[in-house]
Structures
1.
Amino acid sequence: MYTVVEKILEPGEALPRWETWGTTGYDALGEIDRLLTDPAGEAGLTRLDTSLRGGTPADWQELAHAAKRNVAETALRAEVTRLARSAGLPWPQEVVADALAEVLACFGVYRTYLPQGRHHLVAALQQAGQRRPDLGEVLQALGPVLGVDVEAAEQLSETALRFQQTSGMVMAKGVEDSAFYRFTRLTSLNEVGGDPSQFALTPQQVHAAFAQRQREWPQSLTALSTHDTKRSETVRARITVLSEDPQGWAELVGEVQRGLGDLAPLRDGPLLNLLLQALVGAWPLSEERAQEYALKAAREAGLHTTWTDPDPAFEAELAASVSALLGPLAPALERYVERVLAAGFSNALAQKLVQLTMPGVPDVYQGSELWAPALVDPDNRRPVDFGELRAALRRVLAAEAGPVPTHEDAKLLLTQRALHLRRDRPELFSGYQPLHAVGSRAEHVFAFDRGGAISVVTRLPLGLQRAGGWEETCLALPSGTWRDALTNLDWSGQPLLSELLRQLPVALLHQI
């Protein structure tokens, strides 16, 4: 039986060797997005984020800790109090609850499965002790109660069992549903299972991760969009371009701030940055969708208004700002969208081809075969128009040859042909071998051979455009003749990337 687990792995966390084929794929999502993120943009976007915070740099670890601690003391206070009561320690209940909340806030992963993952519990207890030396004795006594010394799951106390369940809730509510809305430097990185402070991965790091996946979890799911992603894959693809244009993005944010100052000022700079990224990533969108997203983002961040204690004055201020952004200030956003449109299109096709052909089993979230510029739920859970999808597929299949002109049709074409190739010729997807380009623009291509199927994608497309294109850069193909499943053109030897990727910024080659 094919079984995968909805297990969210934090960076560097390994899946326990359970009797499963792998996870539902959030780990793959993070690798792909960071492959397409320009590390050179980190400093500029960090400077902008710092200025929007009044000159105080954001520390992701501290921000996440504060958000988790807040959740443990508010929304999940009853759970923590129950843990303190069942622990049976000789300190006042509120002191034990304070220590437990600190351990939960210091937990680096969603949960342990003791005795598996014991080192995560040990690390959390140690970090809690460093942060709160005044609770040293309580924390030392908590270790055995929480199962730090157990050799088998059957030995776990009720407190230890419930703690493992509670830590996951604290992580989900504290990080996914709060900290992700406060740390807004580059929101395409704020995704389930991701660490936004990890800005980018090099092609070499991603090749190593994919090769490891082929060795250890070749049948694990890979994902790009799910019911829980904060932004759909194509929204993230466009936002990722900001890493290649930090100065241009800072200029837009400054222009919008000045415009809002005259119309409807918004006092929260990081929230404005998050909102602008969402609007540019999902553009065009209705004011209704934008207002719904802005309100949810502000309440999730919990800095000025919350779900349980809404601030009508701030929410009115926010609504006025959104109306101004989609009204008088819309031309500024439209100009910037035009600036990053082609690069976002390139990124969207790149991330899709990599996901569909990398080691693992690709999971295509309903509707994401098309452009689907969705934001967080409920936006990403709207009904899919399968009639439209069928009509688009018929249009793609009716094309005589080559890619079709629209973005949506190109993405659908890629999805259909990649999945059909995997279904019809599975022997072409049985291994993993990195391929490397040669030439002055080699950093802009990412390619791999799965054992007879070769994926070639453009990386950092805006920078490539500014550099004047591919020039003499070429890709050395294995011997034989290779056909591009997307254009039906044949290639061999060392084709120039300017020729290979002339019609689309990606290619899917297979042996003939």
2.
Amino acid sequence: MDVVIGAGLAGLSAAVHLAAAGREVTVIEARKEPGGCCGTAELGPHRFDTGPSVLTMPGVLAEIFGAAGEDLEAWLPLRRLDPAYRLLFADGSRLDVTPEAEAMVRQVRELCGPAEAERYRRFRALLGRMFEAEWPAFIDADMTRLRAMARPLALARLAAMGGFRRLDRLVAAHLTDDRLIRAHTFQALYAGLSPRRALGIYAVISHMDTVGGVYFPRAGGMHAIPLALAALAEKLGTTFRYGTRATRVRTDSDGVTAVLLDSGERLAARTVVVACDLVNAHAGLLPEAAADWRLRRPRFSPSCVVLHIGLERPLTGQAHHTLHFGKQWASIFTALEAGRPQPDPSILVTHPTPDTLTVLEPAPNLLGHGWDGLADRTLTRLTDLGYGDLSTRPRLTWDPRRWAAEGHSAGTPFALDHRFTQTAWLRPSGVARRIPGLHFAGMHTAPGVGVPPVLISGRLAALRILEAAR
């Protein structure tokens, strides 16, 4: 039997692929429902998504359903957001990010002038070429063997396009307007780094957002994604054990033998996919032989403070995602790198339903300090930005301490950062070399953080198991 520990997106992806291949699969999940990081919470009549709000590359989801002979649209209808983001700058200017190329070029021309619009057109094409070189070779690829990095043609193409320069320098070499540069470098925070430390290869994140588009389930919010995947896995015969915690993976000289549960039950297994927080898993769930040298000195991403606010009425003219940039730029990253709050915060405001508003401010993780009180500061900033006084509205707050209580090491939902020494093969491995049958999936492994990479990591774990069985 195959056992998957964790019913988050990575574990569900692995379970569907294994079950679609005819394997007997059991998923162990400590919570009462699927979702993991892609969770949900209720406060009175208000329901909030407590995890990611941005879904890109829906083809990755479609591939999972396709592996089971099912159609994504029949299970999980999506709509493309237009704009994907509304970017509001401190000088009062605005840019609506839309995936339509000519519409974006027109907006850039109006905002920045014709010369910058042509530079943007060329830069947009560059992002597409970088994505084409990077996706099959390093994102949608198994990085558990060092030879996976030996892709000279792809590496040469990326180097020629500036992929190994720092992200801020790469973008500034093609665009001159500071607002456009910010629009194509803020995504570095998704990788846990500032634009001046992230490699240019992470420009593909802005390609996924600004060119590929951002999507959202037509019903049920982002939490509809794990619910649909779990329902598909159940249809394929997968057994789910909710409200049950795995306490130990047992092994012998031949590899994995069983998973011990908090109920005292011993669940026999020949393969296990650990799809939960990997740093915490090494603190007790996994045997010592599973230790990975890449986790000896883990470097964590910054965290965030998130306010989920219940509204009396919808906000007129509000985009689904609105990013409010502060006046400062370089100093906010300097502060986060030093474990301090942003001095002039940029915040992401999400208005997914008429009665809810979610506000995210990047913040230090538990290894830093100064994030106490950020929630009140964020409310004040919302008032200053014209949202009115929301201090009396019902709200839930997620801060680094809450993220840690939810099982995220260092109190960050963004796992390890994506510095070069934690990228691709150098990221914690998806397989335990000394324990046959033990695999890993999730954002601590390659390809990394984000909905598409996490889903891919689950598929890669399942494919390794299926290949070993042939």
3.
Amino acid sequence: MTTAAAGSPRTYQVRTYGCQMNVHDSERISGLLEQAGYVRAAEADEQPDVVVFNTCAVRENADNRLYGNLGHLRPVKDKHPGMQIAVGGCLAQKDRGDIVRKAPWVDVVFGTHNIGSLPVLLERARHNTAAEVEILESLDVFPSTLPTRRESTYAGWVSISVGCNNTCTFCIVPSLRGKEKDRRPGDILSEVRALVDEGVLEVTLLGQNVNSYGVEFGDRYAFGKLLRACGDIEGLERVRFTSPHPKDFTDDVIAAMAETPNVCHSLHMPLQSGSDDVLRAMRRSYRSERYLGIIEKVRAAMPDAAITTDIIVGFPGETDADFEKTLDVVREARFSSAFTFQYSKRPGTPAATMDGQLPKQVVQERYERLIATVEEITWAENRKLVGETVEVLVAVGEGRKDERTGRLSGRARDGRLVHFDAGSLAGRIRPGDIVHTTVTYAAPHHLNADGEPLSHRRTRAGDAAEAGRSPRTPGVLLGLPTIGAPAAAPAPTGGCAAR
């Protein structure tokens, strides 16, 4: 028996773990598979023909999560010969052939540098009834040249660079994603225009370190120029970016943010620690004074700017005094939100073998104090917005309780989450539409607007959402082989695919 009826296209499902880079890579994986003739499986389908895991190696317990999910799939695959499982992303780049050794029912393992090979590897594994493992040490083609199936009608990720030239002692990304490789500005702007032509209103420029963009072609001011160029694209209403590194943050970027109308006044800038000693041990080449100085300049140019951050608690050697310095910076910076993490060892990073690894209970206690301090500040900052009018880009899936409360949700221009009552416009507001509404209540992580919206603007993104269309960017395959719609495979008789 096979998982696809004879002559019918094979179905696929992509399961994504990790950061925005992984989410965008999964859009490319979907685009590649659909170009090769696969069809996305319905959400309720428990046995798609192909399941692709796009993995993360940065988050805690990433390995356990992957192998646990692979274990759950093994009996499903045993009952449905012809089903294929592929593992890609950062954990695949790190573990390589170990994945097939630990889970021999996996058919394909591919890395961060060869996403474009997936359709061919799947076909080869089917033909040979044996696992295919292909990991490249450097990029074959820039990922954004690949076809992409976008998940949102109104917002899109656009990569401006991949890889990272920094050497933070807690981070494994450079060894998995490689050295920074920049796209040419014209290619980036062409992709942005293509998304806008499809109705997208908001783009987020992605890179491991966006404000070092241009290092490869020798222009340290390239990122500010790119932001300004996005301001010239008609129909593009919101531009965001993530993530910058404080060591590379230049005044021209602040000026570009302040002077380009469609660049949102929101900034996500990782702090990691407020202690200069810990920053030095992390090999973060800035100090707390430099960090706070950037925030001061941003707020001077854009008083309404919402600033968010990442913070790690319990880094090896962190003392009580070091932790108190982090709390001091948090209080001075007045973040609108913070992603907080307990330090955990990542094999292959210098920090994993450092002296001064802290007991779990010490890290947990500091973590709880940090969260309490952050929430006290974010709640106070959000309460300042009660009574203010905000512009909301209506979203899908942002409000987990929307169905029960009867509200809709979306993001304000500064990135804050807003739950709002549609009032008399209920049933007419679509994802991708724009509303203006007045904030009536503030919580630490969101705003509520429970009065009648002041205005509602229907958009092309809303039209696409109503019609069930999602943007697709075709990409340029640069010689990569393609395959037609795959025929159903005969039941394998041996090899890894039969296990």
